[in-house]
From TrEMBL:
InterPro entries: Homeodomain-like_sf (IPR009057), RNaseH_sf (IPR036397), Tc1-like_DDE_dom (IPR038717), WH-like_DNA-bd_sf (IPR036388). This is Tc1-like transposase DDE domain-containing protein. Residues 77-221 form the Tc1-like transposase DDE domain. GO terms for molecular function: nucleic acid binding. The lineage of its organism: Eukaryota, Metazoa, Cnidaria, Anthozoa, Hexacorallia. It holds the Pfam family DDE_3. It comes from Acropora cervicornis (Staghorn coral).
Amino acid sequence: MKPSTYSTELQQRLLLDGVVHPANLPSVSQINKVIRKELAMTRKKLTTIPRESTTPEANAAINDFLTEIANINPTTLHFFDESSVIKTTDNRNYGSAPLGQAAFEIQRYASNANFTINFLHSFSRADFYNILDGPSNGFELLNVFDEVLQEHRADGSAVLERGDCLVMDNCGFHHGHRIEPVLRDMLAHCGVRLLFQPPYSPHFNTCEYCFNEIKAFLLGHQMLSMKPKSQ
């Protein structure tokens, strides 16, 4: 049973798999009672885990990343990420799990971006952001860093300085054969190192915590994340 399985689905499986006779089929409320009382499970927010993140290769990549980043001065680290405000379909947000434990489920799902937030921050501040209409792509990424590399703070210092390290995820277009080499050259010209996170490890990018706050705000103000209808 997956954590997100509904009680009605459990009821159907009991019947279709021949576990119980139709005359003895438990009601949904009886199934819920068994889940709560006998299995000691509660309903909670569901955390989804990509299947690919559970492989030995993924674990090895995480260990390599942690070893490497442990030797970098944290004040030189800059984290970059994109986040889409999305509309999703057929996603289940809650699941059952034993009392005191989180509900995890390995799955994939698709979504469509309404707009994309590009965000860069460092040890003590937000350094740069912009908002794109719709999803991002490799060429938009290059445009972002063309702008970032020209940005300066109020004290006149560059947002990205020589000796800094830029951390970003392994989004497909970040590694595009026409994108990654150009991005590396742009950064290297300014003395900035590029470091990619391990695959399927968004928790290693602190931008995610900022995005959680932004999305929570937008959920409470959904009109802000809706595209106007064309006339």
